[in-house]
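tool_call: predict_structure(chain=1)
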Amino acid sequence: MGRLVALLVVLLVLGASSAADAELSGLFQEMVKSGCHFINGTDRVRFVQRNIYKREQLLHLGSDVGLYVGDTSFGEKVARYWNSDPEWMEYRRDAVDRRCRHNYELSTPFLMERRGERGAERVPSGSALGT
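tool_result:
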């Protein structure tokens, strides 16, 4: 096992990337990022979903708009396809209630209990800063 680790370290140090590049050239990355933006508690909640392929955002959905918007030419085609399916879009629009408001209600009591619990003691001020 020790020899294998040593060999891997030597290969990394010497830059043996040509073999790795040939082997990994077929890889791609697809990612969907989603998030909830809260303004004034749950009075105004916005759900945002971003679809990313090879580090480029193809399309996004904002719950305030209620439709997918293409950020590239391919993303525009996908957005038109998804926007044309009423059941799919209804499911996506419900994400504000299903994901954002639901998780807010679950996590808020826990987060409010912990607010300032330890952080205030660790923040230096005044003479501790040397001012």
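agent: Helices lie at 2-14, 17-24, 73-83, 86-93, 95-114, 119-122. Proceeding to next step.
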